[in-house]
Amino acid sequence: MSSIYNFDKQISREGTDSVKYDLRKDIFGTQNVIPMWVADMDFATPDFILDAIRQRADKEILGYSYRGEMLMKAIREWLIKRHNWTTKTDWYLFTPGVVPALNLAVLAYTQPGDEVIVQPPVYFPFYSAVKDHGRKLICNPLKIEQGKYFFDLEDLKNKINKKTKLLILCSPHNPVGRVWHKEELVELMNICLENNILVVSDEIHSDLVFEPNKHIPLASVSEEISDHCITFMAPSKTFNTAGLFTSEVIIKDEKLRQQFSKQIDALHIGWCNVFGNVALQSAYEMGESWLTQMLNYVSNNISYTYKYLEENLPDISFQRPEATYLLWLNFQKTKMDDDEIWKMLINDAGVGLNKGLQFGKEGKGYMRMNVACPRDTLENALNNISNTLKLEQDANNLL
Question: What is the pTM of this model?
Fold first, then answer.
């Protein structure tokens, strides 16, 4: 019988060297904010993962380890069950996180001066992964139609030239929450294939998809596409294990796999985190029931937020995300500029969000909110924002 998990439980993270909580003063200038920014959850890491880590710790020695057959099997079976994607275990490589993998991909598949395309507004490490290595960043912004984001394929075609070597895809998309349809992926890849552009697909949010949406791994779309893309995944966002820095890279094409592996070896980062291995394996072997319950809770948080804004803060809105626990809040109707929004949220409402401009200039007038938290936390944050904006509106009406 499956366990019933309590996502309302408040867990103190202060004093644990938590980036989300213990760096509030560095990020926001004050400790007195409800932190709803960095993408980890305020839910307990699942008990089956913690139990597996404790059992491994009881072995008393934490020496060098390798990734065994059972771990590989767990990944393979998870991909079949969750994403209908059949892979081979010799396609797998491992990195200490998806962000390092992004940087490794740029180093492996491009040369200084080559052009790399990203699709803003997008997860900000995409930008640094390109620029920090002397590559030229090309932005192909998503377009908005009736509040929903889509690929701008005409703009993409116009920006491609002989120096364009790589496109970094965010799938599902952070921060806008899109789950790309098969037809959209095929159209995008047709352009990339025609121009010999390799696609790196960051699919770290692939397990955080709300029904009836369905994540489609890019490499599963066709044999031709699978030979021209590489895939990044991890259990870290899904099961709240980001601090274990363990992610998988899936590359079918042997030449591409060797190029990536060469970068891992050159930097000597291929060895594994003992507890990261244990967490990954136990998550994929035992995580389905917990994941179903967590997604249901987060979905209800999203619905609660949507209704609350509609009833109390009509000048703030968002397109319901198809995936992720991140809301892309549109503040443009408030007529406040980004600095005013930021200062209001921190100094008056006591709520810490991500600035939309972190994700590119297309994020102007937006803020990103993490709602993977107990409902009490969410209610307090929304009430604080509502009360603050109402006070400001009342003050303006008196002028």
Answer: 0.95
